[in-house]
Amino acid sequence: METEYGDAAAEGRTAPATETFPAHRDLLFTVAYEMLGSAADAEDVVQETWLRWSAVELSAVREPRA
């Protein structure tokens, strides 16, 4: 069974998770940096968030920014 990402990639499209995440990446980095005080730690948070986000069923997400 193809995943949502696999279907998009096979058709030469961008996966919905990939389209949504960059729009909020800067905000996520800023919040993480303000909380942690380290750019390296903030980047780690952004990376972990991306890994989790890419596995989420997007139809269940009401507000991606939240």
Note the overall shape: elongated
Q: What's the helix-strand series?
A: HHH
Percentage of residues in DSSP E strands:
under 5%
Radius of gyration: 14 Å
Most strands sheet: none
Helix content class: 55-70%
Write down how many β-strands occur, each being a DSSP E stretch of 2 or more residues. 0
In round numbers, the mean pLDDT is 83
Put simply, the count of helices is 3
Which structural category do the helix and sheet elements fall into?
mainly alpha
Q: What is the straight-line distance between the termini?
A: 30 Å
Uncertain runs are: 1-5
Any overview of this molecule?
There is one protein chain. With 66 residues, the chain is mostly helical. It is 65% helix and 0% strand. It has helices at 4-10, 16-36, 39-53. The protein is elongated. The chain starts with a helix and ends in a 13-residue tail after the last helix.
Please sum up the structure shown:
It is built from 3 helices and no strands. By secondary structure, the protein is mostly helical.
